[in-house]
Recover the amino acids of this structure.
């Protein structure tokens, strides 16, 4: 049996936990900001660990945190040479941060909830509504599924095209070509701008296949998931929303 003091402490902890839960989940914007902050801090810590860095490298925590922030917010800025600084584990962590930043951590959380059979409530649907600037929480689960499907299909196609180019033209081993294809497909589709070569993509400036693949991934990813879902659902330019039309026209004009 718990003592009276023990029960009192548990009750206070329970009230504190309940208060923190409502502070985070009752405000979707606060939940999103908190989630991104925790993701960045965890990513920065993992990138800072020696097991994530190449032998002889000593990337500081500040640099690791900066790279994690850049990856999670898909800005592509870096204070260090990614290829020289991080080993396979560090590169995979970086790729996961890019994917989380591109999809949104709440999208991934909903997928995990769905896979484990958990019920997705109205609060989670409202958070997705806020993340993707939707008019209502209706159809959010279908949108999330379409986002995941689109991401997997586009990134896999990009990975295969890049991998075949590296395997055939540059004589990479097939396993290494696939890994490099996956990393750069994820980076390009999420508009992150990270590369595993010290000179970025300068070495491929005469490679039409590689450049067109990366450019296509950048443009498709740049449209945004709601626009892609709108186009895929309507399949008629006249029927898509004004926002989608403006995005497509802007992309065509800019390019």
């Amino acid at each position: 049996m718990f003592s009276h003091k023990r029960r009192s402490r548990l009750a206070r902890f329970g009230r504190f936990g309940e208060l923190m839960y409502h502070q985070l989940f009752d405000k979707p914007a606060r939940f999103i900001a908190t989630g991104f902050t925790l993701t960045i801090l965890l990513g920065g810590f993992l990138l800072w660990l020696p097991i994530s860095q190449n032998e002889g490298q000593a990337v500081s925590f500040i640099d690791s945190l900066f790279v994690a922030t850049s990856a999670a917010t898909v800005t592509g800025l870096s204070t260090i040479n990614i290829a020289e600084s991080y080993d396979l584990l560090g590169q995979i962590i970086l790729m996961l941060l890019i994917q989380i930043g591109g999809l949104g951590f709440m999208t991934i959380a909903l997928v995990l909830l769905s896979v484990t059979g958990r019920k997705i409530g109205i609060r989670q649907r409202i958070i997705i509504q806020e993340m993707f600037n939707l008019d209502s929480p209706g159809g959010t689960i279908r949108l999330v599924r379409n986002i995941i499907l689109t991401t997997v299909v586009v990134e896999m196609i990009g990975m295969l095209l890049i991998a075949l180019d590296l395997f055939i033209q540059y004589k990479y081993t097939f396993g290494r070509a696939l890994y490099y294809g996956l990393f750069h497909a994820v980076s390009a589709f999420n508009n992150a701008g990270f590369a595993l070569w010290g000179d970025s993509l300068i070495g491929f400036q005469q490679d039409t296949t590689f450049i067109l693949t990366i450019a296509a991934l950048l443009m498709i990813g740049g449209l945004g998931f709601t626009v892609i879902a709108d186009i895929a659902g309507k399949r008629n330019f006249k029927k898509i929303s004004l926002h989608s039309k403006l995005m497509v026209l802007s992309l065509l004009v800019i390019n």
Remarks:
- The mean pLDDT is 80.
